[in-house]
Design brief:
This protein has five helices and seven strands, in the order ααβαβαββαβββ. The chain is α/β, with parallel strands linked by helices.
Length: 175
């Protein structure tokens, strides 16, 4: 009997999270979830190896793949992801609790997050979001903060470097 309840309950819970995720994606200003592939993440991290960050932040982190790989290269760094999609937060919570990861995924509006502590920020969002975040980064980030944006430039900043990885541009900035 319990097994039957579980079979019925799991799809219902999944549908509830799916509805919230669709609402977040299509009825808010939030960009849709699109993961960065591991080859691209490795190429980005190779460019960033020269200076080890103490605090790495990823607004809209999804499943936090960037943070997971960054944590291997920068083992002393504090790793913080910001994610509002309930289904992705649940996946992260389960995955990182079971694995004992040191990644913290916060349910925070990334337009209201305090970026002052961050010395490396990675984003794969969209153009309107990067324009809004650009203003926030200029106000809050300290001199020396590095920002990496895949595919979408920050209009308020001039990139120090632009790489093309798998036919997509990656913009590197220093505040």
């Amino acid at each position: 009997m319990i097994f039957l309840w579980l079979i019925l309950l799991v799809p219902i819970v999944y549908l509830i999270f799916l509805v919230f995720s669709v609402r977040e994606t299509f009825f808010t200003e939030r960009p849709p979830y699109v993961a960065t592939d591991s080859r691209t993440i490795r190429a980005i991290l190779e460019e960033l190896k020269t200076k080890a960050p103490a605090f790495i932040c990823e607004p809209g982190c999804g499943q936090a793949d960037f943070l997971r790989l960054a944590g291997r290269i920068f083992p002393q760094a504090e790793l913080v992801g910001l994610e509002n999609a309930p289904d992705l937060r649940l996946i992260n919570w389960i995955h990182y609790r079971l694995s004992g990861s040191r990644i913290k995924v916060l349910s925070v509006d990334f337009f209201k997050f305090d970026y002052q502590k961050a010395d490396l920020i990675y984003c794969y969002l969209n153009s309107p979001t990067m324009a809004r975040l650009g203003e926030i980064f200029l106000k809050q980030c300290s001199k020396g903060t590095r920002i990496v944006s895949r595919s979408f430039p920050i209009p308020q900043l001039m990139p120090d470097k632009i790489l093309e990885i798998k036919k997509k541009k990656v913009y590197f900035y220093n505040i």
